What does this fold into?
Amino acid sequence: MAHPRRRYLVYTLAEETEWSLDELATKLAAWETDTPDTDIATLTRQEMYTPLYHAHVPKLVDLDVIEFDTDTETITPGPHAVQVLTVLEGTGGSIDNRQVAHARSDFDRVGTQ
It folds into this structure.
């Protein structure tokens, strides 16, 4: 959980419980650049997709934080997702305030629509 992208990925599970890897790449690129999802270019999304697929997703799968369906490239919470999310939210201020702010603002927007 040391890498910010892995924390971002786990925070997305608080918003939705199922994501395609492409959706996650867009979401994480938007968070990292503080840009609306709709303004993320294809190249930027692809630059995010590659390390997610090859590094971050496999590590979180190994830790049972997420499950990854390789056929559909879909990510869902794993057996340890709730515990990890609880810890991240409980210590969010000391981990990365920006990640928590993005996750909460997206979650709040979804809840009011």
In short: Strands lie at 19-20, 66-69, 74-77.
